[in-house]
Specification:
The protein has seven helices and ten strands. The radius of gyration is 17 Å and the shape is globular. Helix 3 crosses helix 5. Helix content is 25%, strand content 25%. A hairpin with a 2-residue loop joins strand 8 and strand 9. The longest helix is centred in the middle third of the chain and has 18 residues. The chain has one domain: BirA Bifunctional Protein, domain 2. The termini are far apart. It is α+β, with helices and mostly antiparallel strands.
């Protein structure tokens, strides 16, 4: 662990492929019930093709529910901000940690993304942190992987990891999608809003010439957070209210509230 991360006791949680609502409820629960002085890195997949929307992203009139259903796409709304991501051939990470440990949300965002970039680089992916003035991308700008903003993880100048944050009391939750292959093009078939400045996202497979072997990327990321990838914690404390939270993330009223 580097810098402020040394002040925390870290735990690793590896989950298999789960339904979208359960994934979002589990991330939410990790943040809400995080014990004092502890931080968690969770790595997981998705059970089926899923579109996740940012907490406050406009979706009504911009994403076509009928087209999504016809394509077999599940839709959930995240507890964090950001824009739409299609989850299929990718690995999702979530980090829950005390908000003040890293010096605030921006510092934590950079610190986490540096760890993610370092893990990818250790496998041979030319991942780095995007530079620039840090201009915020509007929530109505369309799908997340249309372009990279300052501080995000890129490769060859193209966005590789899409991340979003939310502060929940004294805890910061950040999670994001690491593309193994490019499935984001499918979003163009269900997005009815105006699109501009679309870039093809970078993918791990593009630079490795293959998809990572099972557990390969998880191990590389765990090492960069100072964790032993063979020592997996199951923080049962995070599941106390998980079922109740899952009901929210299953709700059409929550998903299509904007």
């Amino acid at each position: 662990m580097l810098g402020a991360g040394r002040l925390l006791r870290w735990r690793l949680r590896l989950d298999g492929a789960l339904p979208g609502a359960r994934n979002m409820a589990r991330d939410h629960a990790l943040a809400v019930f995080l014990p004092v002085g502890l931080a968690v890195l969770r790595l997981y997949r998705w059970e089926r093709l899923t579109l996740s929307l940012g907490r406050n992203e406009p979706a009504v009139g911009r994403y076509d529910p009928e087209a999504l259903r016809s394509l077999g796409v599940e839709v959930v709304r995240r507890p964090t901000g950001g824009r739409a991501v299609l989850h299929r051939r990718e690995l999702t990470y979530a980090v829950a940690l005390p908000a003040r440990t890293m010096g605030g949300p921006r510092a934590a965002y950079l610190w986490i993304n540096q760890r993610i970039a370092a893990g990818l680089a250790s496998l041979g992916v030319p991942a780095e942190i995007a530079c620039g003035p840090g201009v915020a991308v509007p929530l109505d700008a369309g799908p997340c992987f249309q372009g990279a903003a300052a501080g995000e993880v890129v490769a060859a100048g193209r966005k590789l990891v899409g991340s979003a944050q939310a502060r929940m009391g004294e805890v910061l939750l950040q999670h994001g999608s690491i593309l193994l292959a490019d499935d984001q093009e499918l979003l163009h078939r269900v997005f009815t809003g105006e699109r501009s400045g679309i870039d093809r996202p970078a993918t791990v497979s593009e630079f490795l010439g293959r998809e990572p072997a099972e557990g390969e990327l998880e191990r590389a990321l765990a090492v960069q957070f100072g964790l032993d990838p063979t020592c997996i914690s199951d923080p049962a404390w995070s599941s106390l209210q998980e079922a109740e939270l899952e009901e929210r993330y299953r709700s059409e009223a929550w998903t299509w509230r904007r």
